[in-house]
Amino acid sequence: MAARVGLSVSYLSQLENDDRPVTPAVAEAFARAFPAEWNDGQAGDAERRLASMREALADPFFGTDPFEPQMLHRAVEQQPLLADRFVRLHGAYRRNQEQLQMVDDRIASGVPGDDRLPWEEVRDWFHEAGNYVDGLDRAAEHLAFELDAEPLPEALIAHALKSRHGVDVVMSADDSGTMRRFDRARGLLAVGASLPSETRRFMLAHQLVQLELREAIQTVAGASHLRAAEAKTLLSVGLANYAAGALLMPYGRFREAARSMRHDIDRICQRFGVSFEQACHRLSTLQRPAERGIPFFFCRVDMAGNITKRHSATRLQFARFGGACPLWIVHEAVAIPDRILVQLAEMPDGVRYVSMAKGLVKPSGSFTRAPRRFAVALGCEAEHAREFIYADGLDVASATAATPIGSSCRLCPRSNCDQRAFPPANRLIAVDADERNVVPYRVM
Q1: Residues 230 and 172 in one domain
Q2: What CA dihedral angle connects 173, 176, 178 and 184, to 10 degrees?
Q3: Which domain holds residue 76?
Q4: 164 and 48, same structural domain?
Q5: What proportion of the chain, given as a percentage, has pLDDT over 90?
Q6: Which of 93, 126, 148 is the last residue of a domain?
Q7: Which residue from 202, 163, 164, 168 is spatially nearest to 182, judged by alpha carbons?
Q8: Gyration radius of the chain's alpha carbons
Q9: Does 8 reside within a domain?
Q10: End-to-end distance of the chain based on CA atoms, in angstroms?
């Protein structure tokens, strides 16, 4: 620990025994070495304000020159109102940049700005909500405590459906591909018998929270201001899925377990009885104020390279339209099921990310229907690498180890990428008839 913080063992021992004060420089050293634990352990407003300032100033927009710890502490202590407004201003800047990227992406793709499909409206709603819905998350966590079992067994959820709502659960041998069918009039829930156990549990949890938290889901969906009626229905389904994940993986216990396991997905799956994808998705929702988890991005990519699920609590933002960067490891993972690949990548803004990706196959239950093949990716900024077990074999500090990637070719400013599919939308190109490189033009 002393080596990671950059102190002598004797100095650290004196800090432990309150024989030395924690100076601003020492506090900054701990914050850099243990960002999640240090910020999480600070209870006062001043400490939270300092952590927010530190995070904002880490943005590459402010350059790479270090901010003196004493100066930062003094600024927060002497001008707390100014510090709060600085953090809010930076947050507004970040949101503005994300919205600008969405507009650029939409213009470059030729999709009209007011012509979003219902599922796109819902996707953007969850993105703007930070992929965290506080009321639903806490209500689902309270319900999990009432049921009082970890992991929640399928039989217990079925018993709760029967005892609390009069719903009987039956296994369906229907080979049409229907995963769940609820007959409200008869109070009968049919779940596909061929589904993996983790999926069956999720289907039961979805139905339980849909009935148990009906008013809360309707309140959130009703206040969403989505234009299309289909979008509000889709949002209600998405909110029930969100609450089902929160029921199977209650916030406090899940966050604590994930951190103690250094976010080892396979171990998390065993602990909570969930699928690999469900665990990854849940990790991306840990955004509860004052109890945040590691900021992760999460996505799911199909065989054609389409991003079918996406969320980022980091500075990395996915392209809304079209495919992602072909250099990103998730595309390779699609073709290699059940193998975890890891990557250190760097975006054009200089921010580095550690990511893992795994190809998955979901069985169809019938020879007549092809199984679904896709890959999920989960990653965090490199400063959290010590908390992410998949970064253990990567040289995060190396200046040349990171793969240069972008959000998509339309938006990527890199001029020397051999994998470029087409030019960036906002740059000119030059073509030399007497010279041919891998990419047949130069980006100006």
Answers
A1: yes
A2: -70
A3: 2-93
A4: no
A5: 45
A6: 93
A7: 168
A8: 24
A9: yes
A10: 48
Residue type, 115: D
Tell me how far apart the alpha carbons of residues 369 and 433 are, in angstroms, rounded to a whole number.
49
Separation between Cα atoms, residue 53 and residue 74, nearest integer Å = 12
What is the amino acid identity at position 180? R
C-alpha of 182 from chain center: 30
146 and 34 in a common domain: no
Structure tokens belonging to residue 378: 């989960």
- Secondary structure, 3-state, 369-380: CCCEEEEEEEEE
Considering only the C-alpha atoms of the chain, give the largest distance between any 2 of them, rounded to a whole number of Å: 78
Residue 115, both tokens: 């012509």
In tens, the pLDDT along 307-350 reads 888 888 887 877 665 557 889 999 999 988 889 999 999 988 88
| Structural domain contains residue 107 | no
The reply to whether 248 and 136 lie within a common domain is: yes
Of 258, 274, 290, the one marking the end of a domain is 274
Alpha carbon separation from 6 to 33, 54, 55 (Å, rounded): 9, 19, 21
Tokens of 304: 């054609």
Contact present, 348 and 328 (Cβ < 8 Å): no
